[in-house]
Design goal:
Length: 604
């Protein structure tokens, strides 16, 4: 009994540690080895590799069975019964979703196991971490048969330390991925995008010293533009080595500080002659953090973003957000991840005349965020609190908050991010109001330098569109989605429709639009034609121009994207066709309406 208790305690504490391992930021600039490439996979709809025939969980057993797939067991003689073999199983490219790579898995929602073997020569005194950019949705991760942890949430990174597990030769990293949708998850059962399953972002080994810089914020001070402030956090801090230096040579900054007993040093550095980051001047400074002689580099832009009554101010000057919404999907209809995917999407946004993109409806990959920083596109980043998550459930809230924390940890040094969005089109209730309020407060506690918003729904009646959602009181920007001429309303009436809101805050139209199949032509009142979509844009823009406090828009959407809700044969064929550009790259007529409108806006 005592032995059992100790084993149980050990199991829980190990799992607990794995769950809570702190996220390492700025991975692209660290000493890393990529595990991307070809992996083996086993499709396991009954979770045969996870449960015994009486449904005991193998990874809770003291000595897991060789039938557990994470054991990666191989028969030692010809008589032995082993019913799986990763090395003889099919191969798939990682990062990449299974739905777009394997035709038989196009609609598959369930469990798939992945395995990658590797060698690693880890010197003594060094530490090693496995970092995973994202897995949709739930991941159980094992190295050399040992469980590292479980992670939930399809669009955020996580990492585990593997220093004591890794061997010089023949390591096997096994990951069970489950993309089954559940009501209580974030997002919930119902979305308007494809539930791409798999290891959709990079898998990386990070090598570090015993103590190292885990995370930091280096940003312009919220209150004083002549100061750079933030913190540096050391992992496994050793008081004997407490000196941290931050250098920004172009600004002649050479800061030296001492880490406190909590492993953190907070700083405020006077800074003069900063060339502020903006779409016209996406200036990034080379920053070096030196800890124990080890240098970590980053490229950071400095700017302020704030609201003053109903205006958004970038570096103290009013701006208008000329935006477009974007899903994370590539040209072939799978999850986008590469720099090439990011360049394709953001170049189109630039061509449209944008200075801003709404990356919907979940945190996108780090490549696109870093590229937006370089290209000078401001970003709205969002978590998938979409439509109806279970607002009354504590675990659902914690899950949403964890996703938000990971997104902020990864991206908080990117000047391009100006808005954290808490949710999209959530139905009003007390529980939902609390949920979003708590997320907003959490966000401010982690990052008080950016603006908070959420895409809201509106009410209509008495000739007005009304934006009075109670949650507006916790938001810096009032954003709302509306679909005049598509889900309701008459396009002829557009100019007569007036909008009102009780908030004296900046307003953004976070979505409007309608479907058109590229190449389908007809009259302006014929649905699905490019002419209908073009007219819808012309009329909506006439209405939008008159919205009080209007500070920006992000029409829905840049490119057609896959959605299982969109089934009309010959037209939708499993694509949401609201793109201004088709999935095969054809610009529709409405693209040019929006482009002209933005050209005029620049002149105003
Ligand atoms: C919305 C949602 C978006 C959908 C879009 C549509 O309001 O926010 O996720 O894809 O409408 O096309 O209906």
């Amino acid at each position: 009994m005592k032995k059992l208790l100790i084993t149980l305690l050990l199991t829980f504490s190990i799992l607990g540690q794995a769950q809570n391992q702190n996220l390492i930021s700025n991975v692209p600039n660290r000493h890393t080895t990529s595990l991307n490439g070809v992996w083996n996979y086993i499709v396991d709809p009954y979770e045969t590799g996870y449960y015994s025939f009486h449904h005991d969980v193998y990874d809770k057993q003291e000595k897991p069975s060789k039938a557990a797939y994470f054991s990666n067991y191989h028969a030692v003689n010809k008589q032995e019964l082993v019913e799986y073999d990763f090395d003889k199983s099919p191969k798939i490219n990682i990062p990449g979703d299974w739905n777009s790579q394997v035709p038989e898995l196009k609609y598959y929602e369930g469990n798939v196991w992945f395995k990658k073997s590797f060698d690693y020569d880890l010197k003594t005194q060094k530490r090693l971490f496995v970092y995973i950019g994202a897995i949709n949705y739930k991941a159980d991760v094992y190295l050399n048969g040992k469980k590292l942890g479980t992670h939930e949430g399809g669009f955020t990174p996580f990492n585990y330390e593997v220093t004591s597990i890794v061997k010089p030769k023949d390591n096997y990293l096994v990951i069970k991925v489950d993309n089954t949708r559940h009501k209580e998850d974030v997002p919930t059962l119902n979305t308007d995008w494809w539930n791409y399953g798999g290891i959709t972002r990079d898998v990386t080994l990070i090598e570090e010293s015993a103590s190292f810089v885990e995370d930091y914020t280096i940003q312009l001070d919220k209150k004083d533009k002549n100061k750079i402030s933030g913190f540096v956090k050391i992992n496994n801090f050793n008081p004997a080595q407490n000196a941290v230096a931050i250098a920004i040579p172009e600004l002649k900054i050479n800061y030296k500080g001492k880490v406190g007993a909590d492993g953190i040093v907070k700083f405020e550095i006077p800074s003069k002659n900063v060339s502020y980051w903006s779409p016209e001047n996406p200036k990034l400074y080379e920053v070096t953090i030196d800890f124990n002689g080890e240098k970590l580099k980053d490229n950071i832009g400095f700017r302020t973003i704030e609201t003053q009554e109903d205006k958004i101010l970038l570096n103290g000057k009013q701006i208008f957000l000329r935006g477009i919404s974007i899903h994370e999907e590539n040209a072939k209809g799978g999850r986008a991840n590469s720099e090439e995917d990011a360049l394709r999407l953001l170049n189109w946004a630039k061509e449209l005349g944008c200075n801003y993109v709404r990356l919907a409806h979940y945190p996108h990959n780090e490549n696109i965020i870093r590229l937006a920083d370089k290209l000078g596109l401001m970003v709205w980043e969002e978590i998938p609190v979409y439509w109806t998550v279970e607002f009354t459930r504590k675990e659902t809230y914690n899950n949403a908050q964890n996703q938000l924390t990971a997104a902020i940890t990864r991206d908080k040094n990117r000047a391009c991010i100006i808005i954290w969005s808490m949710a999209n089109e959530t139905p009003v209730s007390d529980a939902r109001n609390n949920f979003i309020k708590n997320l907003a407060e959490h966000t401010k506690s982690l990052d008080n330098t950016r603006l908070i918003s959420a895409a809201l729904l509106t009410q209509s009646g008495d000739g007005f569109g009304t934006i009075n959602d109670e949650i507006g009181q916790y938001l810096d920007i009032i954003a709302f989605n509306q679909y005049l001429g598509w889900y309701g309303g008459n396009l002829e009436d557009a100019e007569k429709i007036l909008w009102k809101t009780k908030y004296n805050k900046p307003v953004i139209v976070s979505e409007f639009g309608g479907d058109a199949k590229a190449g389908l032509h007809g009259e302006k009142n014929e649905r699905w034609t490019e002419e209908y979509q073009e007219y819808l844009y012309i009329q909506n823009l006439k209405m939008i121009e008159k919205i009080p406090h209007l500070s920006g828009l992000s029409p829905w959407i840049l490119v057609d994207f896959r959605s299982p809700r969109r089934l009309l044969p010959g037209i939708q064929d499993e694509y949401n066709r609201k793109g201004l550009i088709s999935n095969d790259g054809q610009k529709k007529k409405a693209f040019y309406i929006m482009q002209d409108w933005y050209k005029k806006k620049i002149k105003d």
